[in-house]
Amino acid sequence: VLDTAPDADADLRPRPPVVTIMGHVDHGKTSLLDALRGTDVVRGEAGGITQHIGAYQVTLKDKSKITFLDTPGHEAFTAMRARGADVTDIVVLVVAADDGLMPQTIEAINHTKAAGKPMIVAINKIDKHDANAQRVRERLLEHDVQVEAMGGETQDVEVSALKKTGLDELIEKIQLQAELMELKANPDRDAEGSVIEAKLDKGRGPVATVLVTRGTLKVGDVFVVGAESGKVRALVDDKGRQLKKADPSMPVEVLGISGTPSAGDQLQVVENESRAREVAEYRQGVLLQKRTTAAPA
Ligand code: GDP
């Protein structure tokens, strides 16, 4: 059995929040993710090329950090949750101020509530002449989302992803929410993480984007991930930089995996390669058995 026991309180340190953006199609999720990426103070200095690895982390002027899952769409959120890889701390619900609440907005509200996640409403496209933020706030009430202006506790903010307005305020609200949650993890232990996405890269072999959930993942670490195993050959961040290690809430591409894992798989660092192979082989056996029993007679 792998060591997945909870950490002692004394070992816990603050970690950045992990944010997922949800909302109706065309309401501006991708645009907002792009605009927020631009708030990163180290991106320019890094000199690397922006990589779309399924998540990115921004470092703000005050040195604090926020991780954004860059996989807009409710499917990723629900699929990861169904697999026990519930990595999101905060949901930002994007609602276009001209369009108002639409079916996928309501779906997103329901998913967020079912997951018990705090929500921040970003009323987007506020630059448009037919924007009506107040109507959005009123319609939200019908779905039991009471924003502050309506006497409730859900934070809301008017933004324009296009004109890049309201972004600082949105970030402040995310930070405020994160502070209330006192998000913590133990960085000084063998790492664990969740696979955000994975692919077979022509040049690099199997590559998985892993969000570190606790511990610090290092180059050279031996691990199991789903039914695969490996030894970290390289860690690459969303700025294309090669890292030596990745700490909690950090998303990184992991190279050196025996095969391609699935989104939602858990990565765990183990003591040695024979142990890693043993766990992976056991899991492959279980998978095979599942498929055989599931096969129609
Ligand atoms: P997604 O489907 O939710 O990811 O939405 P996109 O980010 O792809 O945006 C859909 C469309 O709305 C695109 O044509 C964007 O340029 C436009 N859009 C996004 N944000 C804004 C905004 O703040 N103002 C205006 N006027 N247009 C926006």
In short, what is this structure?
The protein has 297 residues and is α+β, with helices and mostly antiparallel strands. The protein has 7 helices and 17 strands.
Give the arrangement of secondary structure elements.
Elements: E1 13-14, E2 18-23, H1 29-37, H2 43-46, E3 55-59, E4 65-69, H3 74-82, E5 90-96, H4 103-115, E6 119-124, H5 133-141, E7 155-158, H6 167-181, E8 184-185, E9 192-201, E10 205-214, E11 217-218, E12 222-225, E13 228-236, E14 242-243, E15 245-246, E16 251-257, E17 266-269, H7 273-294
Parallel strand pairs: 2-4, 2-5, 5-6, 6-7
Antiparallel strand pairs: 1-8, 3-4, 9-10, 9-17, 10-16, 11-15, 12-13, 12-17, 13-14, 13-16
Oligomer: single chain
Number of helical stretches of at least 4 residues: 7
The major beta sheet can be summarized as: 6 strands, mixed
Helix content: 25-40%
What is the averaged pLDDT score?
Answer: 92
Given as residue ranges, the uncertain stretches (5+ residues, pLDDT < 50) are: none
SSE-based structural type: alpha+beta
Q: Gap between N and C termini, in Å?
A: 33 Å
Gyration radius, rounded: 20 Å
Strand order in the sheet with the most strands: 3-4-2-5-6-7
What is the element string, with H for helices and E for strands?
Answer: EEHHEEHEHEHEHEEEEEEEEEEH
Distinct ligands: guanosine-5'-diphosphate
Strand count:
17
Binding site for GTP: 23-30, 70-74, 124-127
Subcellular location: Cytoplasm
Domain Tr-type G: 14-184
Organism: Sphingomonas dokdonensis
